[in-house]
Structures are given as structure tokens and as C-alpha cells.
Amino acid sequence: MAIQRPASPFxxxxxxxxxxxxxxxMTLLALVGQVVTGLHxxxxxxxxxxMAELTTGDYLRSGHFLEATFENWESExxxxxxxxxxxxxxxxxxxSESKKLYEEEEVDAEPDPSKEDAPGPVRRGGLVLALYKNxxxxxxFTLFLVSVWLHAKGGAEVYSIEQVxxxxxxxxxxxxxxxxxxxxxxxxxxxxEFLSILSVVGLSIFLRQHGSPQSKPVDAAYSETGT
Length: 227
Fold this sequence. Notes:
Strand content: under 5%
Largest sheet: none
Structural class: mainly alpha
Mean pLDDT: 94
Shape: elongated
Number of helices: 9
Oligomer: single chain
Order of helices and strands: HHHHHHHHH
């Protein structure tokens, strides 16, 4: 049954963009909670070292906030970037997250610049089109690299404060990236993201969620691949 289109432009906008609006709200609320609790935790650590507490504004510019935030963001962008690329070439029989095993898919077709509503890069062709064809993975991996750098920058600041407090030398960003601490922080998040990919690909073979585009139809066979 078709859903009636809201008459009000405002409610129509909310309905047509409800997924992004809700997830954005959830992200911001979680981020606010992280700032409140992170500030409290870090001020306790600073007090133990005999250092002055930070205000909320100071904390938002601190290495502790950068490290905690981008340590997680980097793994998310890595997960999505790899997921986008791996699903181009690899298949999983029975998973709703995989392309069909042997049939051609619409997403593999070459872009048609003659389509009336084709995006600008498709109509222009050349290098612009080549970049546009891979723009999703390029964006994810760019965000991943930026997040890695900010994670390292924040981590180096926190690590240096601890080092100086212990009578040792501060470290720079590149030096910090060579420490086991940096890689422990990164790899513990990366493996959890790889596990989430494994879970959604594997569980979607046998399990269903009625109404979700991430699931196969409830009556679909286990062997049926794709949505």
C-alpha cells in the first residue's frame, strides 16, 4: 500500500529525510554525552597529576577530545570504505549485502550521459566522471586518513603530557604513530568494525527484518543472494 505524501512542505521534508535527521540527532546527542563525561574523566586525571582543570571550551580543543573522537571515527570510515570496495568484487551466497552471484547488476552498467536527469559529472565525462564513479570510496578513505591524523595528533598531546609528568620527553605526532599505544587504540576499533561487517553479511543469510532494505524478503530462500 502506498504511503500518502504529506501536504505540508515541512513534514514532507522531515519524512523524506527522516533517516538522516534521526541518525544525525542520535549522533549529536551521543557526542554531547561524550563531551560531558569525557571532560569529567579527563579533569580527574589532570587533578591527579596536579594540573589545572579544563573548561568545556578548553576540552573541545584538547588532545583528549580529539583522540577519543577520531580514534572511533577512523574505524567507522575505514569500515564503510572497505565495505563499499569489497562489495564491488566479492560475493557471498545467500547474503542480502552481496550482489547477485552471476547475474549482471544495474550498478555495474556504464553511466549514460544521455539520460535527462544524469548528474553533471556523467554528462561531462573524462576525468571528472572517473573521479565521480569512485567518489564514495574516495570520500570514505579521505575521511579515514584525516581521522587517523587527528587521532594521532590528539593522542600525541595526551601521551606527551603523561610523559612529561613522568619526567620523560614529549613526542611529536609521527613519533606517537610509531608507538604500540597508537596501534593498540586503532586495531582494537578496526577489528570490531570488521566483525560488524562479518555479522551483517553472515546473519542476513538466515535472519530477516521485515520492512528493512538491508534484509531479504521474509519468505526469501536462504540461498537467495541480494535484495
